[in-house]
From TrEMBL, chains A, B:
GO terms for molecular function: molybdopterin molybdotransferase activity. Pathway: Cofactor biosynthesis; molybdopterin biosynthesis. GO terms for cellular component: cytoplasm. This is Molybdopterin molybdochelatase. It comes from Halorubrum aquaticum. CDD domains: MoeA. The keyword Transmembrane helix does not apply. It comes from the Archaea. Residues 125-149 are annotated as: Disordered. Gene3D superfamilies: MoaB/Mog-like domain, MoeA, C-terminal, domain IV, Molybdopterin biosynthesis moea protein, domain 2, Molybdopterin biosynthesis moea protein, domain 3.
Length: 675, 675
């Protein structure tokens, strides 16, 4: 088993790139209707098959003449020619311009035979047939029956004047568009001018996505959490990434724990696709099936890469029934890891196969907001969040926000970059991080302020313009809905204040009493009623924290970082003082005191589900979800901005939402809330 | 007729923007399947409806325990617990962990009742039922029937250790994504985790495109140039632009010159669309129909804007049969003008209605390559070409080309910007210009080197990395196919040399003798045979230029800028010397000497069509298109690079294609070509 050894020696990231580059994902070119060609890439050069225009075309309203007939004409001494007819755009000329004659033409008309130039109408006069009177020609209606018999020309023209010769725009046989051209509206326009309605384009690589893992359920299907089922995140995420990179994703049905079926699906996907992806399964048996299929009918190029995350990456080829082969890449299982590895190693190969360049917005320059230690001896693709301090015009490596930009921006305007580490398993990291920073194995730390390049999770990712942290609160959620592209991390009041002090966020929302004193500006505040949420009608007759201590009630708590918990602990402290004991004596006697749930609604939902007799929460949530509520007090919720950020446009917008009227609107209908 | 006055007074561009902003294009929100949601914009906040994970989840392979049972355990003094069963991912636990017991769990498994923590397998030992022997647990197979009866724990754990509580990733009720969020793969991932398979998104504004103009034919339909028909460029170009801006284009059929039908179509489009666009017709009557429809059933907001191009822009509202109204904008008729006005005034409104921000790549900073005079008293949207000197990583306002970037780039790396003015009517301007520079009415000139902001025709436009100019030549066309994103303007040898001297292009291709001496580096050269192209079999027995002078033959020439023409004129000059007269004496006697066609194939095609007896051309073209050929000589074709550009990566790539082997491949099969 020589290959087993290979699995242990992690490959360098460059070797992984080379292995993927060695795979052939390029599909056959295809032909698409013009109206579907936008965004595609020309497979071959397109030469003009016709002249544009296809005829000598009048480019002014006026009279078609033989230029020689006008020679010598000027204002003082006009030349008169017989008017023999008219030609309009979209009509076949029914006249010939013989020497001494002219024909009326409108812009776009076919030049009549004999004529080789146009005199614009403004330089001519109409002469009636009888020779009496003259009338300036000013582009008015041609007057039907009143058409004059002769036209006086007050200027001479040269052959070709005001005529666009056939092929002058594009000549038949000319090179119109080169192979590899990305088709944007203007290329669609040129192809239209040439009459092309079927366009030869590069094919989109077909990427099969095989989902492994017994516990995965497709979004929209019923989920049975009691069986440990979770929704399949990777298949849809990677499918969207494939589309974004110019590929065509094909989702294969779940094989569940039927390994024969999984093997069948892998082979089917290889037969049908240019590339097959699977994402890591928690099941060792599933990985074994993939190995077996590759080893029996394919070639394993590489297993294990010295990159974090992504160590278990697997690269190989799968034979096809028709004798060809498909590429295979196995992605890690955690969503952020899978997307990171896809973005870093696979998407470039898909784009390359589709003939598309890397989008200019795929990376963003930023600067580290904090010092970050590192030292793991392998390449780290560190998930990071971004905060765009430039107030709007973000960040393709500098300032590109239109006419107002006056040259490239300095480092000061670079967005802030901060590490996001919630554990790779967290799905929320997907939206709390904006991309990754590649940290070399030999980098010991990144300094605060150090410039870094962020590989965005998508070229369409827009870094938020406001970063808030702090208490989880329904009024805050409403407030966020009124802002443009904010990010809010509900880390609790305590942790929020700590982060505000450390200088990353713009704003912290703090509820209840605090010990910390952080230099900040108050943007707004309100008050909320908190207490114990109980089943509707309060069947246990809960009256306060004493009941939690003294009776056999199942309680659900909130984490110590939250303002709600701080207020509860103060209450229990008061009770302990009253009883002459320590707070810990009392909390030890509360069943579920240590069971803390992350979001403000969670304890209420446990009560609703019958899994708890009381939960720490807000009157608002209790009433909205139809529970009983035992009030224990009110607490202030204060929105604080970092002093040095108070002038930012995004912070000012937030402050504007928190004026008296704004706060009133914000709290309208929220039970237990007051300004 | 007070409104007539309004038509004469051109509105300021800002007034046009305000008029368009006052139109309501916002469609109703809709619901789309998750797999189609990428790129769309959330219409409303999405809160989590479920806990993720939906159960307390083991986050390690190991044993589920009651944490209290492990208190005090360490390497020296392990605690032993009875093993009562196992739980795997995707399965419902069938065991309960009572005090003194444990259950095997794999990562992702549901925590069994009773257990509140997991001890990782590495910190445990298996103990057989009889108590004899010990075996380290190292994560191997669970061993089926050999499952031990007791497990020794060499560490203690706290409640919650290695357990992800239900809702710890996202809690039911938590704010997941805010309204206005652009859905990229990562948001698709988060929605998947929440089980959302139908996503509430902003609607795409429906934009009806009504084509006016008798002469317009849809690409793919038959064209009759003798009637002055041309392909409709604007409808497809603008439709692609609408899609790009996040709208849904609807093309209405051509009404031809049936004004009743045109009126019916306008009203149908208003009934069905959020916005109706038409593009200028050469027909005054068509414009009259549009006026009448708007005045009878709608409101005219503005007609005529002080902007070049785009003066005839028309903005209004159209009443709908159902009592609502649709917006209407009339665009100018020339393709570049229509796209310019669409991009500047209409696309922003479509994006706004779709909830999309302006793409970061919609503009590019550059610097003027040449001095440009201006002074027309109205805003000019000047079409410009770009040349990316940065060799690849272009230009979102600076350097953003990934890991190699070391801070914002200086002015020197800004792409060169040069005006493109082929007359607004030229379709080729669509692809020879990359965007427009807005020049204020009071700007007298733009200096060479002056920084300017270019509004690209599309966010997907990539400025070329190589700009070539000069002779039109089939070998050059082949050469271009081998380069990445080049632009070549076939302006002729003379004009090409002039432009090379003026410092804009990288490269000029020069054929035949030249007078100019331009500082440059020769990258490659070859020779081509030129002469007179005649009908197959040379029915007139043409032998040389003397026949053109002396006989009654219809000739087709090439422009004076071309090398072919220069060689022909030299030949005629020699004949004149021989005969003792002037060249002009001879050329006056050539029928068609003044008829010059732009592309190298054009004279040949005239001959083929029977419209000429001889044309100036190449043996290559004559043989390829099946004509006869009367050789007059050979001329050198030389590829010259500007000296200060010779080191550029793109120029080096070109030079590499022109080494001996490259030139041989280039010329293979081209009749009359030699190295």
């Amino acid at each position: 088993m020589t290959e087993r050894k290979e699995f242990r020696d992690l490959a360098e990231p460059d070797a992984a790139r080379e292995a993927i580059a060695s795979l052939d994902l390029v599909p056959e070119p295809e032909s698409v209707p013009l109206e579907e060609a936008r965004g595609r890439v020309l497979a071959e050069r397109v030469d003009a098959a016709i002249d544009v225009p296809g005829f000598d075309r009048a480019s002014m309203d006026g009279y078609a003449v033989r230029a020689r007939d006008t020679f010598g004409a000027d204002e003082a001494d006009p030349v008169e020619l017989d008017l023999v007819g008219a030609v309009h755009a979209g009509a076949t000329p029914e006249v010939t311009v013989e020497p001494g004659t002219c024909a009326e033409v409108s812009t776009g008309a076919v030049m009549p035979d004999g004529a080789d130039a146009v005199v614009m109408v403004e330089r001519t006069d109409e002469r009636p047939a009888d020779g009496s009177g003259t009338g300036g020609n000013d582009g008015g209606d041609d007057g039907g029956d009143d058409r004059p018999a002769r036209i006086a020309f007050r200027t001479s023209v040269a052959p070709g004047d005001h005529v666009m010769a056939a092929g002058a725009d594009i000549a038949a046989g000319a090179r119109a568009l080169g192979p590899g051209t990305r088709l944007t509206p203007r290329e669609i326009g040129l192809l239209s001018a040439l009459g092309v309605d079927e366009v030869p384009v590069r094919g989109r690589p077909t990427v099969g996505i095989v989902s492994t893992g017994d516990e995965l359920v497709r979004p929209g299907d019923d989920l049975d959490p009691s069986r440990g089922e979770i929704y399949d995140v990777n298949s849809t995420t990677i499918a969207a990434g494939v589309t974004e990179a110019g590929g065509e994703p094909v989702l294969y049905p779940h094989a569940g724990d039927d390994y024969a079926e999984m093997e069948r699906l892998l082979r089917e996907a290889a037969d049908e696709c240019d590339l097959v992806l699977s994402s890591g399964s928690t099941s060792a048996s599933a990985v074994d099936v993939i190995y077996r299929v590759i080893e029996e009918r394919g070639e394993l190029l590489l297993h294990g890469v010295a990159v974090k995350p992504g160590k278990p990456m697997l690269i190989g080829r799968l034979d096809r029934a028709d004798g060809g082969e498909s590429a295979y890449v196995g992605l890690p299982g955690y969503p952020v890891s899978a997307l990171t590895i896809f973005r870093t190693f696979v998407a470039p190969a898909v784009r390359e196969a589709a003939g598309l360049p890397e989008p200019r917005t795929a990376t963003v320059e930023g600067r580290m907001a904090v010092r970050e230690r590192y030292g793991e001896g392998r390449l780290r693709l560190m998930p990071v969040g971004l905060l765009d301090l430039g107030d709007g015009g973000t960040t393709g490596g500098g300032a590109a926000d239109g006419a107002a930009a006056d040259g490239p921006a300095g480092d000061r305007d670079l967005p802030l970059v901060y590490p996001v580490d919630k554990g790779s398993g967290a799905t929320t990291s997907l939206v709390e991080a904006d991309g990754v920073v590649a940290v070399d194995p030999d980098t010991e730390y990144l300094e605060a302020g150090e410039p870094v390049t962020v590989q965005l999770f998508s070229p369409d990712v827009r870094p938020p313009t406001l970063l808030g942290v702090g208490e989880d609160d329904p009024a805050v959620n409403r407030l966020l809905d009124r802002l443009e592209n904010p990010r809010y991390l509900p880390v609790g009041s305590r942790e929020g204040l700590r982060r505000l002090r450390d200088g990353v966020p713009d704003v912290a929302v703090v509820a209840g009493p605090t010990d910390r004193d952080v230099d900040s500006v108050v943007l707004g505040e309100w008050s909320r009623e908190w207490g114990l949420v109980v089943p509707d009608g309060n069947p246990e007759g809960v009256e306060g924290v004493a009941d939690l201590v003294d009776r056999d009630l199942r309680f659900v708590n909130r984490p110590t970082e939250t303002g709600l918990r701080r207020s509860l602990d103060d209450d229990i402290g008061d009770l302990a003082t009253e009883r002459g004991g320590s707070r810990a004596d009392l909390t030890d006697r509360i069943d579920g005191y240590g069971l803390t749930l992350r979001a403000f609604e969670s304890p209420v939902r446990r009560v609703l589900a019958g899994d708890a007799d009381a939960g720490l929460g807000l009157r608002e949530t209790a009433e909205r979800l139809g529970c009983g509520f035992v009030p224990l007090g009110e607490q202030r919720v204060v929105v604080r901005a970092a002093t040095d950020r108070a002038d930012r446009e995004a912070v000012a917008s937030l402050a504007a939402e928190l004026d008296d009227d704004g706060t009133e609107r914000l709290l309208a209908g929220l039970a237990g809330y007051s300004a």
